[in-house]
Each structure stands twice: as structure tokens, then as C-alpha cells.
Amino acid sequence: MTLLPFYPTLLPGLNLQALANVFNVQHYSAISKAVGRLKGLMRENKKVKLQFEMLECALMSEVKI
């Protein structure tokens, strides 16, 4: 159950600039770079991918829709 890129799925309707504002980041490109780096790490390292998926599952189980 990997949601990549994960930010539109967990925070629907938010663009990169809106996410930068949410996370108090100066420029929206930092969000894009972080997502790209995380994707690369998950491709290279299965343990990182598993940890991300576990975190994602835990977060999604807390979401009440």
C-alpha cells in the first residue's frame, strides 16, 4: 500500500506551495526535492521502504474520515 508521491494522497488538494506553508518551508521546491530523495531511498533500500510503509499505515489508521 505505497502512496507515491504520498503528499497529494494524505493531504488532497494541496499543491507544493501549500505544503511548503504547512511545513514552514521557505520554498516549495524543497518539498519536491524531499519527495524525490525519499522515492530514491525507497528504491535503493527495502528497509527504508518498509519503514515508510509502516509509518504510512500507522498514520492512515489515525485518520478518521
Automatic annotation (TrEMBL):
<dbReference type="GO" id="GO:0043565">
    <property type="term" value="F:sequence-specific DNA binding"/>
</dbReference>
<dbReference type="InterPro" id="IPR010921">
    <property type="entry name" value="Trp_repressor/repl_initiator"/>
</dbReference>
<protein>
    <submittedName>
        <fullName>Uncharacterized protein</fullName>
    </submittedName>
</protein>
